[in-house]
Structures are given as structure tokens and as C-alpha cells.
Amino acid sequence: MSSEQSLYEKYQLKQVINASGRMTALGVSTPREEVAAVVNTGLNHYFEMKDLVNKTGAYIAKLLNVENAVVVSCASAGIAQSVAAVIVKDDAWLLENLHAAPLEIPHDIVLPKGHNVNYGAPVATMVAMGGGKVVEAGYANECSAAQLAACITPRTAAILYIKSHHSVQKSILSVEDAAAVAREHNLPLIVDAAAEEDLTCYYEMGADLVIYSGAKAIEGPTSGLVLGKKQYVEWVKLQSGGIGRAMKVGKEGILGLTQAIESYITLPKTTGQEMVDKMTPFIASLNEINGVTGRVVWDSAGRDIARTEITFDEAVLGWKTKAIVDAMKNGDIAIYFRGYRANEGKIEVDVRSVTPPQLAIVADRFKQLFSGEKA
Fold first, then answer.
1. Residue 17: what pLDDT?
2. Which of 92, 120, 145, 311 fits 293 for a cystine, CB–CB 3.0-4.6 Å?
3. Burial class (CB in 10 A: 0-12, 13-18, 19+), 142
4. What is the pTM of this model?
């Protein structure tokens, strides 16, 4: 019995086919071998943690040609600690007493209304953990630079921009627009780019702090990265003596993410066209099923990611799409999809974390489901 099989059996865990992408609910991603090796080394050695944080941050900053960087426990922690950083700065009393901050301390965090999303947890919750209060600019379907600027007052501590497929995409100002508003009002711009693939473009567009998940596009261990202007990142580091203590990252996470970033920027990446090639036989198999249509679609947030969109003719199949999604999760092997548009009779398959044999299993499972066979 392999160690992989024994883990599933020991804890009575279901095997999973992850066709939904780098999602926290499924463990996000599977790091490369060299990353796992560095994690293991980190686990088995001791370090002066402040030295480790500073030296790896400097190393990452040099790799990415940014002023400063720090590894945190996850992107959500990055949001909370970045918000706390721009409120507390280097105030020693406030660092330890953020929960009792006087109301006159600027703590409003302005973001487009269409960016106040739930990505698995609410953005506003992370802002509140950092001592901030969300102020929504514009409307659910639009936010211009002028609408963003109109919400700025003496109580504003920062502007927050959520670069994500979860956010409203249409009629929303760009990162460059938000940076211009921030500069005009002498405010920092924080960009949450958790799942984004470009590790430097938002910094180059003028963001003061940019937050990434270490385990999504970078495929590191569970961790996060905050990079940006030197002083702002130093204030984020100070939060290890404040709210950051409750969300500290271990030595193995720091070292593992540092290696993952180095691998990420030096090794070739899978292109969208390669994803299309991978999914083509799968789509052909889907289109053999009466009432099911598969096609290639591209990432709504503009990343070079191709996915399979599956449309179900519910009248022909006699199934509601949500029931299909639930049935695929509840088989002997749990199969997960991107189900954001299930109410429209559509789901998406992210093929980055799926092997061709697994795609064949998914197609066969659909055929079994609609023929009434047991999983």
C-alpha cells in the first residue's frame, strides 16, 4: 500500500478530483518537488525568525525587483495585516491596542462596492480584523475614479482594490486609476491580487502594498506574500507583535514560499493554449452526451487561463444543474467544479489541477449519472 493510499484509508478520506482550480476548500495546489524539499529542510532546522523574515523578504524583493517583501500565513492574513499596517504605522501603543484605537485615528478603507466580495470569507471581515472599516464607493455595477475619490475623507486610511474573478469586472476603474486617486489624496493603495499570476505588474502600476496567495498561482505551501514600498512592508512586519501574532507563518512556510517564487519566475509556465490542448478530448467526450455541451472559455479576469464551460439542457437531462454538481461531489470519488454559474445551467472545469486520465473519469461519471448508473 502506498503512503498516499494509506493516508486516505487511515483517516477514511474521500479521494478528490479537483476540477475547480486552486481553491482553498480543496487544499489549493500541489507544490513542486523542490519546494517540498525546502519545506522539509525548514521543518528540521532552527532559525532566528526575525532574521529569517528579513533575509527571505530581501531575497524575494530582489528576485521581483520591488522595494520590499514579507511572507505571511495566507492572502487573507495579508489583507488584515496590511490594513493594520496603514492604520498603526509605527505607533508602538496602537500596535498593541488596535482594538482600543480612538475613533479619530483614520481607519476607513475605501474600495469599489463591486469589490466587497465573499471569496470564501468576506473581504470586510479581513478589513475589520485589521482595525479598518469598509467604505464602499460607487455601485454594484460601476465605480469610476471620481466615485472612488468622492468617498475619501480625513478618516480614510487607504484605498483597497480587489483584483479577482470574484469582483465585478465591468465599469470598474483600473488599478492605475485607483493608484492615481491614491497619489492625489496622499493615501496608500492596497491591491489584493491573491490568485493573480503576474507578481510585479500591480506594484509597477503604483500600488503601495500588493498581496498574493502563496499556494495559488505560485504553487507554494499554505502562505501569502505581501510586497511593495519599503516603509509600508516594514509596517506590515511590525504586525507580528500585534494582530499578526494570531496568524503567524512558520519557518517551513517562509522558506517554502521563497523557493516557490524562485521556481515560479524561472521555470516555464503552462500556457492557455496548452490547457486548450489538454481539454480538447474531454470536450469531445462531453459533446457525445445528449443535453450536454462543452466549449473552451477564457478567464473572466483576463489571465491566460482556459477552462471548459459545460452547459446542461436541464429539460433534456431531467436534472437541475445544482443537483448535478452535488451528485458529482457525492460519488465514490468527490469531483469538484467551478459552480458560480450553476443558476444559469453552466459550470466550468479548471484543468490545471487535473490529469488527462482524471478528465476521462469525469466524462465517464457524467455519462453514468445521466444513464442512471451508480457511481
1. 87
2. 311
3. middle
4. 0.85
